Amino acid sequence: MTDQISLGMPQLPAPAYPADVRARLEEDARAIIDRYPGSRSALLPMLHLVQSEEGHVTRTGMQFCADMLGLTTAEVTAVATFYTMYRRKPSGDYQVGVCTNTLCAVMGGDAIFEELKAHLGVGNDETTADGKITLEHIECNAACDFAPVVMVNWEFFDNQTPESAKKMVDDLRAGRTVEPTRGAPLCTFKETARILAGFPDERPGAVEATGGAGPASLVGLRLAKGEKPHHRIVHPRGETSGQEGEE
């Protein structure tokens, strides 16, 4: 039991990045800092940068941000712990977030989340043993018109069912290609973090594939312009895209 007793001793300083890693990150960090009139404004993308290195924001990463921006580690920690997009512990290659907010929940989000937990053998904010999937519930994916929605590394998977969600995570774990409903092709969480840090997505065709809002999101705009939808915008789950409903 003695190894579980804390004596209140201060935590040792964070270990430094290896010299080659720090040199590479410093070059990227300077590119980020140069975008802003004040260096401390670069903290959010800098946290994404260090997250892209190890898959989560480590003490080493926070110390690096503090050093580069002239901040205290307490200031960096306060920001890193406030935003849920910054992971604080090792996580999977694919962050699978199930919306459990009101509309998604009543449309099936709660059922999807419960079945994925059982199917993957993990709880909320836990990672599968193979390191592929981290499962978490999300309060809102900002896509209520496509409920229930699952996001993988912030890409949309609309109108999901427990069966489609389980197939999707099985395909991810098996290394099979998984295509989002809309948006860019999937990449790993580390690659996503680097893109969020502000560096270009250099995968062929990825930028062109990002697209815009889905048709269900734009139906109100079309109606406001006096246009009439010609067919059902979102097909009931279980129907194919060729089974259009009545106007």
Helix percent reads 25-40%
Looking at the structure, what is the overall shape?
globular
In total, how many beta strands?
5
Structural class: alpha+beta
Counting H and I runs of at least 4 residues, what is the number of helices?
8
What gyration radius follows from the Cα positions, in whole Å? 21 Å
Instruction: Report the oligomer.
Output: single chain
Mean pLDDT, all residues: 87
Strand content: 5-15%
- What gap, in angstroms, lies between the N and C termini? 69 Å
Low-confidence spans: pLDDT under 50, at least 5 residues? 241-247
How would you describe this protein?
The protein is α+β, with helices and mostly antiparallel strands. It has eight helices and five strands, in the order ααααβαββββααα. Strands 2-3-1-4-5 form a five-stranded mixed beta sheet. Helix 5 (102-120) packs across helix 6 (162-174). The radius of gyration is 21 Å and the shape is globular. The termini are far apart. Residues 241-247 have low confidence and may be disordered.
Short structural summary:
It is built from 8 helices and 5 strands; from the N terminus they run ααααβαββββααα. By secondary structure, it is an alpha+beta fold.
How is the secondary structure organized here?
Layout (H helix, E strand, L loop, with lengths): L18 H15 L9 H12 L4 H11 L3 H8 L13 E6 L2 H19 L5 E2 L5 E6 L11 E3 L2 E3 L4 H13 L14 H8 L18 H10 L23
Parallel strand pairs: 1-3
Antiparallel strand pairs: 1-4, 2-3, 4-5
